[in-house]
Amino acid sequence: MSQIRRVSLAIAVVAAIGASYGLGRHNLHSQPNTKAGRHVLYYVDPMHPSYKSDKPGIAPDCGMQLEPVFADQLANVSASSPLEQWPSGTVRIDSAAQRLLGIRLASVQKSGATRNVRVVGRVVPEDTRVYRINSGADGFIQETHNDSVGTRVKKDQTLATYYSPEFLSVASGFLAATERVPGSVGTDGSRTMPFPGAVSKQGVSSLNGYSDRLRNLGMSEVQIQRIADSRKLPENIDVVAPTDGFILSRNVSAGQHFDHNMEFYRIADLRRVWVVAEVDENEASYLRAGDLAKITLNGAGRQLQARISDSLPQSEAGGGTVKFRLEVENSKFTLRPEMLVDVELPIRLPRAVTVPLDALVDSGAHARVYVERGEGVFEPREVETGWRFGERVEILRGVEPGERVVAAATFLVDSESRLKTPTVEAPPVSAPDSAVSLPEHVAVAKAVPVPGCSVAGDSRTAGSPGKSLALPAPCAKKVRDDPSGASARHPGDGVD
Question: How do the domains of the chain map onto residue ranges?
């Protein structure tokens, strides 16, 4: 009876093995169907997983069919999978070692960036609000009136007086013209009667001509009207302020003789000023005219609002910067020319794929990051970078949003990756290249046997002038150290 039970048990075991084999065959044949519709990342050589190909085909080294690598396979890789199936340089660092080394991870993000850039600016007057007072004739200064540099002046305020003979002759013609123009003021204050039309037009033309000549010479409208009202020649010419503002420069003094077209004063209206600053040329492209900025006075802590104007067309040679200017309302005259201020500019960058700056390993020619591909598995990835702004850097190609990269202690991961990367062996050096070349006048006398080494090569070259004797490095050292002298020198060769 026990024999029958043993036979039954054996039959059951064989049936179980057969069922298991059939199920495995079914799963094997059904596996391609489960891969239908899955995304293939690349194809690898089953014998050498470091070899990748974008297309299916035959492995060049072993002739085997390339195997596909699917996206979900990489996403679900476990920490126990062998590193041979990963790209060259991939490293595995367990969580305990990561905490010990201070390795931190950060997500790849796609978002815009807004950051305030701080630069130093210089206050300058707005060029359309700067007035230069020049002389229109030769003369000399009689006196000046409260005209120091930096003094605030009012429009039509007298700054200096001077004498010029050319003014007197033109002013005399102006007075004569006013006597012939209808409606002009007489000496007694009464109005003269109009002349006939032709005479009246000629008189008006003459009066306008003399008025223009006085203005061109530098006489103010106030003084021209005073001459017309008083009917008297002026004893001197007044230099008056053309606008409310501050005196920026003064080039005259009492008793000074001056020539035609000399600059007397330079006056600026500082109710609105410019602030000129420089920014990096990469950041300048994101500045927009009309954007608001903040001006902070050094040491005072007071802030003023400014508006970005057009960028200036010049920049410092070789400096990589671009000049720009801001318009600032200065009704209380807080800002003065040549004052240095702090400028805070808002820079808004477009949406882009970015990683922390510390995640990037940049050697100059190449840049890479280390992407987490599994629990403790980090793959080196070559990337192409764009703008760098603050603590973020734009990645144009190489990573996708949602992936995680090493963002702290990256250099330690990079060092480990370089150690794991196989080095390319140097090609073997041929015998003639490693041979010891001797001058023509030095001949090898004889081959001296050296214990522990053998000289390979053509023995016919020994003792022949101009030939080379190839010695392995250990043999060459022993020959040099041989006190008996292994070679004979030509007499008079000058070698000690």
Answer: 1-34, 36-76, 131-265, 431-481
